């Protein structure tokens, strides 16, 4: 006997987003019974995370945003700033606890959604659906059965790939004694940081008011740093670049996001699917995930509510995945200067078009024009060699030394 038509494993961004879409008012009269299984409160409970994305005003979660910005800025290595308004898009910041409370309130009012706490050990096919096995908070075995299972748990390793880098970062929530930030402008990339021998680094500043902001130091490279190295980089960036004086750190977050051209399987059985980062929702060239999760969730909910097989769609088109693979390889081999590459794109491509490209929603002719603003010969050389390279390894995710606070989505 089935417990539900749909079982969702994990109540992070992907799991909650799918449950939310299945409870949307536009869903109609059909309400499939949904079982949302999440780990009991304890060591497996993720710490609060920050998710950023861009979309026009009026989004589903606008009422619980921490902040949003109408102007974005990028600083090149020479200090020159490129600033623009990507209208109609706004850059939005959402904290995980606010998202969880918002969706939790929606789910609490729907009788066809049941939440259960369990540490999941396996998700597998059965003769007529899917089965989830685990242990409840007391350690007792539990079994849940459903027609369809959607597993959002992060994998223990990465798929075979030609190139795998890590996007790793540490951020301080700071409060200054005097006004120091422009609340209307977010700094997406500030390359006035010492560039590492391999990959690239940049600062990232999201002002929450004139005196508060999230300030991060980020690297794209093969290996993560020790916490002390991030702290040194942040002290240098806040003192020598931002010239902040008399501030205190009110919170910290740290994380790592794999940037890989490996192919994440979206299906793990006849009735078992992977969603979110585990299903390839993370954009390989940027690390952004939240917007792709929303598109994926909307597609799955529409299929389930219509009674169709709910195979998750590719989060990003084959064309954009191929372009990501070229960029990752070129960065990894040192054929392009990462700081100059991204600075050049923001200086020469209309910001709204570039953001749509980074979100995987640009059209073919737009991708072609954007490609003309990159180092053409190194990129063509890289594109020519990629089909000849084997996909190797099942690398483990290289976690930072300190406990990560944002294992799934994040901004870049």
UniProtKB/TrEMBL annotation:
Superkingdom of source: Bacteria
InterPro entries, per the entry: FAD/NAD-bd_sf
Region listing for Disordered, in residue ranges: 391-412
Organism: Streptomyces mooreae
Name used for this protein in its record: Lycopene cyclase family protein
């Amino acid at each position: 006997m089935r417990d539900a038509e749909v079982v969702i494993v994990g109540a992070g961004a992907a799991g909650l987003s799918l449950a939310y879409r299945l409870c949307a008012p536009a869903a109609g009269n059909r309400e499939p019974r949904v079982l949302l299984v999440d780990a009991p409160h304890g060591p497996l409970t993720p710490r609060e995370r920050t998710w950023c994305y861009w979309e026009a005003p009026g989004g589903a979660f606008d009422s619980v945003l921490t902040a949003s910005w109408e102007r974005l800025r990028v600083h090149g290595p020479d200090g020159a700033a490129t600033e623009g308004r990507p209208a109609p898009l706004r850059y939005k910041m959402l904290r995980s606890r606010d998202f969880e409370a918002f969706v939790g309130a929606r789910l609490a009012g729907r009788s066809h959604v049941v939440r259960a706490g369990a540490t999941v050990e396996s998700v597998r096919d059965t003769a007529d659906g899917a089965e989830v096995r685990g242990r409840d908070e007391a350690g007792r075995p539990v079994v849940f059965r459903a027609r369809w299972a959607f597993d959002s748990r992060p994998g223990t390793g990465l798929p075979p790939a030609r190139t795998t880098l890590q996007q790793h970062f540490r951020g301080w929530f700071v409060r200054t004694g005097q006004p120091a930030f422009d609340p209307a402008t977010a700094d997406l990339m500030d390359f006035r940081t010492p560039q590492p021998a391999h990959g690239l680094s940049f600062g990232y500043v999201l002002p929450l008011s004139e005196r508060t902001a999230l300030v991060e130091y980020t690297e794209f490279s093969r290996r993560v740093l020790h916490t002390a190295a991030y702290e040194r980089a942040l002290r240098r960036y806040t003192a020598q670049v931002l010239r902040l004086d008399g501030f205190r750190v009110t919170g910290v977050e740290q994380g790592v996001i794999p940037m890989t051209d490996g192919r994440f399987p979206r299906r793990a059985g006849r009735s078992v699917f992977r969603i979110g980062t585990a299903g390839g929702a993370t954009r390989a060239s940027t690390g952004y995930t939240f917007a792709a999760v929303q598109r994926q969730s909307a597609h799955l909910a529409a299929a389930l509510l219509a009674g169709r097989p709910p195979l998750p769609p590719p989060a990003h088109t084959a064309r954009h995945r191929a372009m990501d693979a070229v960029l990752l390889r070129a960065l990894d081999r040192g054929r392009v200067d990462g700081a100059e590459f991204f600075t050049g794109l923001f200086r020469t491509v209309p910001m709204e078009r570039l953001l749509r490209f980074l979100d995987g929603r640009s059209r073919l002719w737009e991708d072609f024009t954007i490609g003309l603003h990159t180092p053409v010969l190194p990129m063509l050389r890289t594109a020519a060699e990629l089909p000849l390279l084997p996909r190797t390894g099942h690398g483990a995710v290289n976690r930072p030394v300190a406990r990560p606070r944002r294992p799934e989505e994040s901004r870049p």
